[in-house]
Amino acid sequence: MDRAVQQTDYDAFSCKISAINKKYLPCQKELEFCEMKGFSELHMAYVHRLKSLNKRAFGKVQRAVQSGLPLMNYGTYLRTVAIDVECKSFLQNAASNSKVQVLNLGCGSDLRMIYFLEQYPHLRWIDLDFAESVSLKAKILRTEEQLKKVVGELRDASETEYVSDRYFLKSCNLNNIEKVLELLTEITDPEVPTLIITECVLCYMDLPKSQALIHKLISLYKSGTWISYDPIGGDDVNDKFGSIMQTNLRESRQLELPTLMVFNSTKKYAQRFEEVSKSTEIETMWQYYVRQVTQEEKNRLKSLQFLDEIEELQLIFSHYVLLKSSW
Ligand code: SAM
C-alpha cells in the first residue's frame, strides 16, 4: 500500500510537466516569479536526470506529456498556482520576521522550493516523503548543478537525503507521528512562523493518523498556516463522484482514499482543522477558478488547448478543495 501511495508522486509530477509543456505553467501575472528565468528549464533538467535514474517514472512523464489532456492540465495549473499564491502571501506577511520555515509534507518531486528559496533569503524549507521518493529526488538534486545551485551545497554526506544550510529533504513516514515529531523538533524551530503544505497527501492517510498529524503539528508550532489540497467525495446522495473514484483507484492501482467519503464536503473537510486551529477558510477549486482566476488568465488558458467539457471541468473542480487554516 505504501508503495502504491508513493507512486502517486509520479502522477503528480507527470501532470506538472505536461502543464509546463503546454504552457499552462508558469502562470502569467499572478505571481512575479512566474517570470522567473529558468522555471521550465529547471523542471526539464529534473526530467532529464529522471530519465537516467528511473525509467518507469520517466515513462509516465512521457505518456502524460503525449496525452496532455486539457482537463488534467487545467487541474494541475489551478492547484499549483493556488498553493503558490498562498505560499507567497504567507512568506510576504512573514517577511518582517528574521526567520520563517515551510514544511512540505509528502513533497514528492515537487520543486516549488527552488523559487521560494531563491526569493526569500530567511526561509528554511523542509521537504518530507517516503524514503524511496526522497532518495530519488536527493540523487537528482545532488547531480544536477542548476538545481544544486538553488537549494545550496550539501552539508552532509548522506547518499539518500539532501541537507544544505536552508534546505532539508528528509525521509519520514507521516503515519509515524512520534518519528515525525522527533525529526521536526531536530530540524525546525517551534517559535518560528511556519507554513505547512499537504498537497494531495492527507487523502492517502487513515483518519486517526491524519488527524494526529494535524493536531500534533499545530500544537508544536507557536504560529502558522496550513495549506491543504485534496479531493472530496461529495455529500449529495446522487453524487457518485467519490465512490467511482474510489472504485477506479482500488481496482487499477490498489490505492485507498480512506477519508474521501468521511470529509466529503468543504464543511466536513474544514472541521478537521477547526477543532484545533483559530481560523479556517476553504473553497472548492471550481469556486477558486470562478472567483480568483482573472478573465485575462481564463482567456489565456482557453487559448492553449481546445476544451469543450466545461461541465466536466465544473464537476471535477467541485470535488477538490483548497483549505487555509491559521493559528
Ligand atoms: N505533494 C506532491 C505534489 O502535489 O506534487 C506529491 C503528491 S503525490 C499525489 C502524494 C505524495 O504524498 C507522494 O509523494 C507520497 O509518497 C506522499 N505520501 C503519502 N502518504 C505519505 C506518508 N504516510 N508518509 C510520507 N509520504 C507520504
From TrEMBL:
Source superkingdom: Eukaryota
GO MF entry, a single one: protein C-terminal leucine carboxyl O-methyltransferase activity
InterPro entries named among the record's database cross-references: LCMT1, Ppm1/Ppm2/Tcmp, SAM-dependent_MTases_sf
Extent of the signal sequence: none
Keywords of this entry: Methyltransferase, S-adenosyl-L-methionine, Transferase
A Pfam family the protein falls into: LCM
EC id: 2.1.1.233
Residues that coordinate or bind S-adenosyl-L-methionine: R79, G106, N173, L174, E199
Reaction catalysis annotation: [phosphatase 2A protein]-C-terminal L-leucine + S-adenosyl-L-methionine = [phosphatase 2A protein]-C-terminal L-leucine methyl ester + S-adenosyl-L-homocysteine
Tagged with keyword ATP-binding: no
GO process terms (BP): methylation
Record family assignment: Belongs to the methyltransferase superfamily. LCMT family.
Known function: Methylates the carboxyl group of the C-terminal leucine residue of protein phosphatase 2A catalytic subunits to form alpha-leucine ester residues.
PANTHER family: LEUCINE CARBOXYL METHYLTRANSFERASE, LEUCINE CARBOXYL METHYLTRANSFERASE 1
The protein's name in its UniProt record: Leucine carboxyl methyltransferase 1
Organism the protein comes from: Lachancea meyersii CBS 8951
